[in-house]
Automatic annotation (TrEMBL):
The keyword Transmembrane applies. It is a multi-pass membrane protein. It comes from Crocuta crocuta. Keywords: Membrane, Transmembrane, Transmembrane helix. This is M4A6D protein. It is found in: Membrane. The chain crosses the membrane at residues 47-66, 86-106, 118-142, 189-208. GO terms for biological process: cell surface receptor signaling pathway. One of its GO terms (cellular component) is trans-Golgi network.
Amino acid sequence: MISQPMTNEAVVVLTPNGIRFPQTGGPKPTSQRRYSLVKQLKAEVKVLGAIQILCGVMVLILGIIFVSAPNSPSFTPVFSIPLKAAYPFVGGLCFVISGTLSVIMEKKSTKPLVWSSVAANILSSLCALVGFILLSVTLAALDPAFRKCTFNQKNRELEETTFHYYVHPLIDKECFTAKSTLTGTLSVMLIYTVLELCLAVLTAAVWWKQAHSDFLGVSVLASLPESC
């Protein structure tokens, strides 16, 4: 039996019964599996990016509500904590940017975009962590502020005894409304912040791993046809 190598690494075997061509379809399952993984990765990236954008938009909207919410002077030092850090606006903007990059890479993936997404998600993680701390501190300070508000209003009642029966219900309602509005807004903002923190850490880890991996799970996106 005589074997003769051919081009493209094909092997033709000459036997007494004729020429036999060995099967060369072995790598196909690997290519199909890689193609399937890439399609799945593209879908997951798009979903994660959409959720990140949603979190960013909600934090921005809640920040606007937070600024315009009715409040008592007793609550001003409390809700100024996250506002001085501009978290609702800076954090929300970072979340939207990182999510937008992930959605863009669902259609077009290049190495600069991958590293940009890693950086954006790391920045979003830091913003979300700072926001979590600020919001937790602010929520914890609402009860003391409410007690201070009630105490200050009762002192006003003693000074305005003539309007005692009229001022007291209005004052209680003012303090309670301010606390309820701030508690609800901060709680929902905290939920979206925690969600964004988890998503940003997960997405940053995925892109970091793919950027340093020999497997073309991300970079192969650029070489696939648009019909993928």
